[in-house]
Amino acid sequence: MFHIVYTKDEALNILNEKDVYPVAGATDLLLQINAGKKDKKSLLDISRIPELKGIYDSGKYIEIQAATTLQEILDSNVIKNFFPHFYTAVKSIGSPQIKHIATLGGNLCNASPASDSAVPLLTLDAEVLLESVEGKRMVALNDFFVAPGKTVLKKGELLTKVLIKKPEGKSFKFSFFKKFGKRRANIIATVNFAAFIEVLDNKISNFKVACGSVAPKPLLLKEFSSFFVGKDVKSELYEKNREKINELIDSLISPISDVRGSKEYKTVLVKNSFELMFLNFFEVYNEKK
Amino acid sequence: MKRNDSQQQIKIKVNGEWHTLTVNPYERLLDVLRNRLNLTGVKEGCGEGECGACTVIMDGKTVNSCLIFAFMAHEKEIVTIEGLSKDGHLDPVQQAFVDEGAVQCGFCTPGFVLSAKYLLENYDEINDEIIKEELSGNLCRCTGYHHIFEAVKKAKQKIKDRG
């Protein structure tokens, strides 16, 4: 059966008492259920709950409520200005028809290893709030995904919002997102790649890169942080370290060969993304100077 | 809303008229529109949200009806291609598609017309990039798209001229 509710409390109560799928857009879940890939459980429509919609500046964070549609995210100047690579990533998801009803919460809980929204959010150290009738807990997005289609959500828990720390301080900030796919629109990524870099006094103070479709979950390549933080920003930064970068990539990613590409091709795409990203970084950085 | 095992009642407004229907939870909006309301202008091309042939407008926004559970349309307003023409006169977007030869087999056309309508209502200025971006959820296997883009531009001009 289906349930339609208008408040968060109603939703949490039903989630606590019954075995249901919470749905806000259900653009992927519908296909999975009707193809027999997921059990036919009851459905809980959470798309009409005002507390689960909207984008807010809470001072330290920009908070995106879970049932905010991807189009609503694109319509937000706050997102476009503060997190341009996240904006670009959301723009690349599906088609206008899909973005009009698909939601950020749904995209994250669907836990596709190729999630375009997750990859830039990982570079921003985003967190998610999980709520149930028992209480709430904040989980780093990097700890949220477990395996394809699986997250740390416990029975009765609902992802209610995504929190991203607002950019602060005097550092130079650079963000980058690139999606590769078999066609230019309405496609699931063969590989996607995001980076967020901060520079202070010509030294790298923050360096985060993440990729999708190269592991069982969207992957933050943590080891690159310790590799790059503290290094001087010189034009040979990529060239000098190219071999090490590629070795590190080989050790961190584990793509599989599938309909979207061979594992060898995906590995090349990640390595090329690094180079592309650095080219772009220096273009922007040198202009700012 | 009555509950009776797997069948439950919903109310949806389609092309200006309210309908009360009993649906099961997994029924798609596409099936309700085509099979219960005989609105066969809404086509099933792929059934997985990639081709846009099933496009309808729901609460003012284009959506793939093959990806929507019917119950999620409860209390919402739907416009299908059948709802566009008024008193036997084609909507300017429909007319432009005819005038520009943007229709070959016609299967993708209802979806394209609705997406074009949404585009024209939401953008003051349009260009090829915007058209391609906003129509990226609709596929055509016949025309090669050129005449479709021309039809969109022609419709924009017509709408501007009407003032």
List the helices and strands and how they pair.
The complex is a heterodimer of chains A (289) and B (163).
Chain A: E1 2-4, H1 8-17, E2 20-23, H2 29-34, E3 42-45, E4 55-57, E5 61-65, H3 70-74, H4 77-82, H5 84-91, H6 96-99, H7 104-110, H8 118-123, E6 127-132, E7 135-140, H9 141-144, E8 145-147, E9 150-151, E10 158-165, E11 172-180, E12 191-200, E13 203-212, E14 219-220, H10 223-228, H11 237-252, H12 263-288
Parallel strand pairs in A: 1-3, 2-3
Antiparallel strand pairs in A: 4-5, 5-10, 6-7, 6-10, 8-9, 11-12, 12-13, 13-14
Chain B: E1 3-4, E2 7-14, E3 17-23, H1 29-36, E4 55-58, E5 61-64, E6 77-79, H2 92-99, H3 109-122, H4 128-134, H5 146-162
Parallel strand pairs in B: 2-6
Antiparallel strand pairs in B: 1-2, 2-3, 4-5, 4-6
Overall description:
The complex is a heterodimer of chains A (289) and B (163). With 289 residues, chain A is α+β, with helices and mostly antiparallel strands. Chain A is 36% helix and 26% strand. Chain A contains 12 helices and 14 strands. Chain A has helices spanning 8-17, 29-34, 70-74, 77-82, 84-91, 96-99, 104-110, 118-123, 141-144, 223-228, 237-252, 263-288; strands at residues 2-4, 20-23, 42-45, 55-57, 61-65, 127-132, 135-140, 145-147, 150-151, 158-165, 172-180, 191-200, 203-212, 219-220. In chain A, the strands form 4 sheets. Chain A has a 5-stranded antiparallel sheet. The longest helix of chain A is centred in the last third of the chain and has 26 residues, at 263-288. Chain B has 5 helices and 6 strands. In chain B, 33% of the residues lie in helices and 17% in strands. In chain B, a hairpin with a 2-residue loop joins β2 (7-14) and β3 (17-23). In chain B, strands 1, 2, 3, 4, 5 and 6 form a 6-stranded mixed sheet that branches. Classes of the chains: A alpha+beta (289), B alpha+beta (163).
